[in-house]
Amino acid sequence: MPPELRLLARRQGGCLSYAQLLAGGLTVAKVRTLLGRGLLERILPRVYVLAGAPGGQRMRSHAALLQYGPEAGLSHLSAGARWSITGPADRVVLTVPHDHHVRDVPSWLHVHRTRHLELVRLDNTSLTPCVRTVIDLAAVLSERELDAVFLRVVQKKLVTADEVARALEQLGPRPGAARVRRVLVQYDPGFESRLSKEFWELVVRAGYPQAELNLVIDLLDGSTARPDVGLRTIGQGFEADGLGPHGPLAAQTHDKRRDRKLAAVGWAVARFVTEDIQRWKRQTIREVQQIVRAREREVGRLA
Questions:
Q1: Model confidence over 88-129: pLDDT tens digits?
Q2: Domain boundaries in the chain?
Q3: Structural domain 191-302, CATH architecture
Q4: Around 192, how many Cα atoms within 13 Å sit in the side-chain half-sphere?
Q5: Where does the pLDDT of residue 252 fall: very low under 50, low under 70, confident under 90, or very high at 90 and above?
């Protein structure tokens, strides 16, 4: 095996296409000899792997890309793993142009076909751009999982909410589009204020018309706090946490510190997330009523 081919194979996870073998100086007869001696192994119809090459997803990913050519790219969970926004994929997932002929696909490979395919290069690998990867993942992840993925790409500054929204509009109807839109709304700068107002309306519906929106509370250190909703007479505050437990650690730490400061001036805080406020409204109303009654009993005992 010429050293140039060995070097190329090393960059490709131990894989070489049939065309690369011939272009590298091997004859058809030599390829057959290497196969017969076990120095090469056919992994896909037009792709071979060198004996002793490490297996795994890296090797299989390169093999799939060599088999389907430069117009193919890793996508979905395979692209997500390369962008470091999801864990490793069980199978290699590839997307090819719609007119590609796909057949004899092994169990470790899944091939999608699409009419709209843009690819980029990352670490010598062809894959879908991060923004397209996020949209594709919506078809295979739950909303909670997609929310966590979106938080990662925003924190890593790989894409913005506006970029995802524009790409989704350009791609048109597709599996998971509604899920993407529901997650996107949480990253709209005005979302938190709208969510607070929705929560205030639920508290009023629960039987507490005296509830105040964004009331100001003086703290012992001279600063102030503004719970999203509050019942001043019993010192009960409510917070609408848009990102819930997926929120950044720094934000969670800040919230807990503020809750302690509120407790020091006699206020209790209960937190609800987007799903509670927009999806589980009846349950949230019941929980608000239970929290308020418990707080009233506590305040009564302290009095």
A1: 888 999 999 988 888 888 999 999 998 888 999 998 899 999
A2: 1-53, 56-185, 191-302
A3: 3-Layer(aba) Sandwich (3.40)
A4: 11
A5: low
0.85 surpassed by pTM = no
The amino acid sitting at 10 is R
Q: How is residue 122 written in tokens?
A: 């990352």
Q: Is 13 helix (H, G, I), strand (E, B) or coil?
A: coil
- Compute the half-sphere exposure of residue 161: CA atoms within 13 Å on the CB side of its CA: 14
DSSP 44-110: ETTEEEETT---SHHHHHHHHHHHH-TT-EE-HHHHHHHTTSS---SSEEEEEETT----S--TTEE
For the chain, the helix, strand and coil percentages under 3-state DSSP, each to the nearest 5: 50, 15, 35
Between 21 and 255, name the one with better pLDDT.
21
Taking the alpha carbons at both ends of the chain, their separation in whole angstroms is: 88
Tell me the C-alpha distance between 149 and 35, whole Å. Answer: 43
Give the residue among 37, 38, 66, 60 at the shortest CA–CA distance from 51. Answer: 38
User: Could you tell me which residues come within 8 angstroms of residue 27 by beta carbon, excluding any fewer than 6 positions away?
Assistant: none
The average confidence (pLDDT) of the chain is 88
- Whole-angstrom Cα distance, residue 147 to residue 160? 14
Pairing between strand 15-17 and 47-50?
A: antiparallel
8 vs 51: CA distance, rounded Å: 14
What would the pLDDT profile of 44-79 be if each residue is shown by its tens digit? 999 999 998 888 889 999 999 999 999 999 999 999
CA distance 293 to 295: 5
